[in-house]
Structure formats: structure tokens, C-alpha cells
């Protein structure tokens, strides 16, 4: 479903990722963690079926982990 090969990324003059390879198979669950503004959540990624769950302060504490992740799948048009 997703393959990254030799990814370099960063901001503010410094590399955050250096030569990262990652393969995520269809149906698997993988978590990418990083600070706001690090490029984890462009809308094109979300449209491809990759879910975004905001940082802890944006979670719904009365919902389960699964329910919070399901909410991350919705796009606002």
C-alpha cells in the first residue's frame, strides 16, 4: 500500500530523516510519530487511505483508541 525508499526530509536547515526505507503492506497497522509541521499529514496522503490521529491534546478521551483512529479517517472538503 505504501513504499518509501531513500527518503530525506527536514526543516530549519537540519535533516530529520536520512535515507529512510519503509514498506507498509495492505491491511497492516503502522504508526508514524512526529511533531506538528513535520509533513505527516498532507491531504493527498489522507485521500490515499492513510489515517491521521492528532497529538494527545486533540484526542477524544471518552472514545476508544480504535474510535479515535476511525475519526482520523474523515476528510473535511
Give a verbal description of the structure.
This protein has two helices and two strands. It is α+β, with helices and mostly antiparallel strands and 77 residues long. A two-stranded antiparallel ribbon has the order 1-2.
Please describe the topology of this protein:
Layout: E1 2-11, E2 14-24, H1 43-47, H2 65-71
Antiparallel strand pairs: 1-2
What's the overall geometry?
A: globular
Main sheet record: 2 strands, antiparallel
Mean pLDDT: 76
User: Assembly state here?
Assistant: single chain
Biggest sheet: strand arrangement: 1-2
Strand composition percent:
25-35%
Order of helices and strands: EEHH
Top keywords for this entry?
77 residues, 2 helices, alpha+beta, two-stranded antiparallel sheet, single chain
Gist of the model:
With 77 residues, the protein is of the alpha+beta class. It has two helices and two strands; from the N terminus they run E-E-H-H.
Amino acid at each position: 500500500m505504501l513504499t518509501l525508499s531513500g527518503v530525506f526530509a527536514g526543516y530549519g536547515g537540519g535533516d530529520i530523516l536520512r535515507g529512510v526505507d519503509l514498506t507498509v503492506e495492505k491491511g497492516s497497522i503502522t504508526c508514524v510519530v512526529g511533531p506538528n509541521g513535520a509533513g505527516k499529514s498532507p491531504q493527498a496522503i489522507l485521500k490515499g487511505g492513510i489515517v491521521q490521529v492528532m497529538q494527545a491534546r486533540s484526542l477524544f478521551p471518552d472514545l476508544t483508541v480504535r474510535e479515535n483512529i476511525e475519526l482520523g479517517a474523515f476528510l473535511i472538503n
